[in-house]
Task: inverse folding
């Protein structure tokens, strides 16, 4: 399943899947709205992937918390976003929308498996640097004592 506010963006995974004889369910919606209100009650995901999602800084924590809440126990969150050092190279022109590692270090309820900078790859231009996060929701919910 792919969720994005842009139908144009959703055409990419649909085309890629079709080339391999597969189909992808797509939903046009705001990511936070879909994760908090749009999915069926009780639905949980084994994997949530955000690639090049660069929300306003005021909405970033809400988006990441909604993603964490949507994970099943043992589920993973994978995030790839442009690093602030990529300003003017790739990504949004607003530096506040670009990432540093600490932006992803504070997601409640997840254990970080890997958080690092990676040089992007592109065959059409200088790809810049990305921040990559792989985090996991623990298999057991912890209870406050």
Result:
């Amino acid at each position: 399943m792919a969720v994005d506010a842009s139908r144009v963006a959703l055409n990419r995974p649909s085309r890629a899947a079709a080339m391999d004889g597969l189909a992808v369910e797509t939903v046009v919606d705001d990511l936070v709205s879909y994760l908090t209100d749009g999915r069926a009650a009780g639905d949980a995901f084994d994997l949530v992937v955000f690639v090049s999602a660069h929300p306003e800084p005021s909405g970033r924590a809400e988006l990441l918390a909604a993603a964490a809440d949507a994970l099943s126990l043992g589920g993973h969150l994978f995030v790839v976003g442009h690093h602030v050092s990529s300003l003017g190279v790739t990504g949004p022109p607003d530096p506040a929308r670009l990432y540093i590692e600490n932006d992803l270090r504070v997601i409640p309820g997840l254990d970080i498996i890997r958080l690092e900078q990676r040089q992007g790859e592109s065959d059409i231009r200088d790809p810049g640097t990305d921040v990559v996060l792989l985090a996991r929701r623990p298999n057991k919910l912890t209870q406050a004592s």
User: Anything to note?
Assistant: The chain has two domains: 1-43, 44-145.
